[in-house]
Every structure is written in structure tokens, then in C-alpha cells.
Design brief:
The chain has one helix spanning about 10-65, and strands at about 75-80, 85-90, 110-115, 115-120, 135, 140-155, 155-170, 175-185. The protein is of the alpha+beta class. The chain has one domain (about 40-185). A five-stranded antiparallel sheet has the order 1-2-3-4-5, covered by helices on one side. It is rod-shaped.
Length: about 190
């Protein structure tokens, strides 16, 4: 039995190796670019997720504003500094009054933008002063804009529009969002 088999010639093997080398060099240059793009997209998505979490938690607080299980004195929501500072209060223990900021468990809350950070203070009576805690992480994001706008509606509860814009501490392109909640108790 005779076999007629032939392999690749030396020239065909060299051409195949040269073409493979060109393809591998091209892929080697493309891989770091692709990896960098994936990392940037991941950072952008992480920033956007963090910003939405801030907006949702702030929206939850704003929806509570003005709640009173009795006759409370004062305003449930005060917007200062063109909406860049929000002071709110609600009757969290349902005793029919808003406990003052001097109480051991005050029922006021404040949010403000200060030095590119969103800050909060329980028992806040004004937008100034010390003791405010950072709600945003300055190592990962720089808050560029924070505002709350109250939109009054006839025979319906007010709408509260939260606007946030932030950029990664490494990236300068900001991400903006708008979250709208209903102020049921206002």
C-alpha cells in the first residue's frame, strides 16, 4: 500500500508564520486599548450607580418631609441657596410634634453641597456650621451640582426635583441625573 501524502513546504510554513505574527502583533496593540476602554466604562457605570443611590436616598428623605401625626409647628421643607441646601423635618416617632434640634433625637435633617461633597446633618437648623458628615465619597467622586426644586401643583402634592452632577476624581467628564419624587406631606 502506497501513500501519497505531502506536507507544507518550507516557504508555505514561513508565510503562515509571518501572517500569524502580524495578526498577533495587531492583537497585542489592540488589547491594552480595549482594556482601558472597558475600565473607563466600568468607572463611569460605578459613578452613575453611586450617584443614583445618593439621589434615591435623598428622595426618600424628601418624601418624609412634612409628615406630622398631630399639629406640628413650622415648615416641613425649606430650600436655601437656590436649592443647594435642603432643611426638612418629619415626625419620625409619630408623637404629634417635631422634636427640636436640641432634643436627643431631633427630627430635622439637612443636606448641602460643600467643597464638592454632599453633606448631611441630623438636627440641622441652618445651612451653615460644623458637624456635617460627608454623604458622598470624595475619593471616588466630585459633586459638581446639587439642587432641589419644589414644583407646586394645583390640587396635587408638590413635586421635588433632585438634580445631581458628579465626576470621577480621575475623570473630568461629569454625569448628570434628575430624580423626581412626590412630596406627599407638603
Amino acid at each position: 500500500m502506497q501513500l501519497n501524502q505531502q506536507g507544507f513546504t518550507l516557504l508555505e510554513t514561513l508565510i503562515a508564520m509571518a501572517l500569524s505574527s502580524i495578526v498577533l502583533l495587531g492583537a497585542g496593540r489592540l488589547f491594552p486599548v480595549l482594556q482601558r476602554a472597558v475600565l473607563q466604562q466600568y468607572q463611569k457605570e460605578t459613578l452613575q450607580e453611586s450617584l443614583w443611590q445618593l439621589a434615591f436616598s435623598l428622595g426618600k428623605q424628601l418624601q418624609r418631609a412634612g409628615y406630622c401625626h398631630g399639629s406640628c409647628q413650622g415648615e416641613g421643607l425649606v430650600l436655601r441657596k437656590e436649592g443647594g441646601c435642603v432643611l426638612l423635618q418629619w415626625d419620625s416617632n409619630s408623637n404629634g410634634r417635631w422634636e427640636p434640634s436640641s432634643h436627643s433625637e431631633p427630627e430635622q435633617m439637612g443636606f448641602r453641597l460643600n467643597s464638592s461633597n454632599l453633606e448631611a446633618l441630623r438636627g440641622a437648623a441652618t445651612c451653615e456650621g460644623n458637624g456635617w458628615e460627608k454623604v458622598s465619597d470624595p475619593a471616588t467622586m466630585v459633586i459638581r451640582k446639587f439642587s432641589v426644586t419644589r414644583l407646586a401643583r394645583r390640587s396635587l402634592p408638590s413635586l421635588l426635583i433632585i438634580e445631581l452632577a458628579a465626576a470621577s476624581s480621575k475623570d473630568q467628564s461629569p454625569i448628570s441625573l434628575r430624580h423626581i419624587v412626590v412630596g406627599h406631606n407638603l
